[in-house]
Amino acid sequence: VQSTRIAVTPGDGIGPEVVAEAVRCLEILRAKHGLALEWTRFPWPSHAWHEENGESWPSDALEQLKQYDAILLGALGDPGPMDDPDRYLLPDSISLAPLLDMRKGFDQWVCERPARLLDGARQYLADERAKNIDMLVIRENSEGEYVSQGGRLRQGTPDEVATQMEVFTRKATDRIIRYGFEQARRRAEERVRDGRTRSFRTLDGKTCESQVCLVTKRNALRYWGDMYTEAFEAISKEYPDVATHHELVDAACMKFVQAPWAFDVVVASNLQGDILTDLAAVLSGGMGVAPSCNLNPTDSNMPSMFEPTHGSAPDIAGQGLADPTAMLFTTARMLEWLGRKDPTLAAAGKELFDAVAADLAENAGTQRGTHEIGQAICKRLEA
Amino acid sequence: VQSTRIAVTPGDGIGPEVVAEAVRCLEILRAKHGLALEWTRFPWPSHAWHEENGESWPSDALEQLKQYDAILLGALGDPGPMDDPDRYLLPDSISLAPLLDMRKGFDQWVCERPARLLDGARQYLADERAKNIDMLVIRENSEGEYVSQGGRLRQGTPDEVATQMEVFTRKATDRIIRYGFEQARRRAEERVRDGRTRSFRTLDGKTCESQVCLVTKRNALRYWGDMYTEAFEAISKEYPDVATHHELVDAACMKFVQAPWAFDVVVASNLQGDILTDLAAVLSGGMGVAPSCNLNPTDSNMPSMFEPTHGSAPDIAGQGLADPTAMLFTTARMLEWLGRKDPTLAAAGKELFDAVAADLAENAGTQRGTHEIGQAICKRLEA
Ligand SMILES: CC(C)[C@H](C(=O)O)[C@@H](O)C(=O)O
Ligand SMILES: CC(C)[C@H](C(=O)O)[C@@H](O)C(=O)O
Fold it and tell me: Isopropylmalate dehydrogenase-like domain: which residues (chains A, B) (predicted)?
């Protein structure tokens, strides 16, 4: 087998700390199973590059990363030296640029964030049914509110007008909705196989094993809201086995809190998906455990990118306090994704997922440092 | 005193049912205190108008309503006869039009939604500190994502492009931010008076009695995000007694779930405010109790509009099941607002609020119908 090659980009803040644990786990899995897996480290802290050339990453970063099969990212976002208020704060829009550049440059048009309340994860909701949360939020990741078109007229004056354009194409809409239905089917098959069936009612009284809920704000943002709705209705006809549902984003946020266990697959636009995934993450235990991935499922020449949902948390960086669990779940998901070409990687991904989940379940509520958690999981993998 | 005049628009679905209870309470309060208060009922169900002329309300609705000091709205949104699938579903964008028309037409540029977890209200969060939730979400209600500019190119084809423009002016930004700081001060004064002080830390280590948190998504939607941030920084200098804070909307939603008791006043854009207010509503007991108002604080010739946060709930309409609590809190807030001119109305508003809150506290968890709840509150007012 040709080796699968990963670009490891630790990034800023707690990024390098949690990535170190991920790399340790990868080393153990590689040695244990003789995986055909290689990785290269790109230590590109935003601040260093910014001081040199005003950018947050080298200008040929995308070309370099394109050589790899996947990118494993720690976290981006660097507010500068926190103890030196006289130096500039690196604006978010600079230090986060590589994130949005990669999503765009590699056309990672799916952002996938599964939410399950695993044993040992913190439960914010009072209702015990929260234990049954098992949803997959799929965010359109290539256009919409994030196209960065617009500007500021009469900037800085009392007459200023700022515009921000949202641009949605039917092509990107169709592909993300279809992806949602495919994931719903895949999840249904998995559940049936594992004997954990669920049941969703359609409007005409049928019962289905899975559901896709489309989220829009079509009563107020109606141009793309209507297009999304029409695309959803057309594509749903190809999936009569999947129940469909439509929520407005404000109601969806409410229902995420009231009955998150009622959702299966949720499809949303770039910004609304950003909001819903953060909400789903907290409902399933918080940023410490939430994995995330930015996928290009259609072009195998383009690397997908895997990053925890959390940010760089500069306030606790360098202290060994960050929870590496989200990073390790993210790494497991990356292996699973790479397993589409090399099944041994998928198996390793599952093994890593199980080890992290077992560690979480066993240590609920205990205070442990970054390395301590990583170490415990490594031990499990070595056992 | 010249009479204060209210336009009562029951609207659709459960609207007329909950409004009936509100009117009963108003009648009692008027008789009891000899209030100089009049109202006129405008029974404009969306469906009837739509069948006649394709609109959801009469074309001169705004002119008629402009004659009043305030509008008390039940709910809008009519999906058509639910038992007759052969007839059209009235699209949301038609039946909700009057809501957005009033906000625009009367320049109701503030949408205010207080969130307190009152005794007896349902608590969705596990953490007991949720009892301390006491925030006011202030939504910019006149522009931004809701300007309805945009369109659909090549509509219905695979090459379709839908655009939606967001337009933000510095003028509207300044006024909503300043309004937020004023509310923070007012709330601080109230708390100090009632001996319920709170304390918020500023970045430079000072402690303040109140806080304004600005929500944007400036790391992705940077044109207006930057303008909002600059306006916020400039205006905050006029309020050195108020602590400031900035959250990105995704993180704000997360923190609403993790620690909603840490927020005081929250200022957000039209769409992000829409999302945050629904979330705040559910965290403080859900739609059954959440009041809302659309205010024009600057032009006394323009009526403000008061509506519960909930919708028309067509699935339970006509059955006497809807909880009128949110409508009654909304009515109390209207009286309080109208009390700026006539203090007897403010006192009546407070009396109504207290009666509704007492009823809620006493009947936590019991199943009661619309009229039963209304009746109990009327009895309290008569006592
Ligand atoms: C950092 C930011 C630009 C990013 C986003 O909004 O997409 C983040 O919130 C995320 O969800 O990955
Ligand atoms: C009905 C809808 C257009 C409205 C809005 O988005 O403003 C509603 O959600 C609200 O919050 O009042």
Answer: 5-377
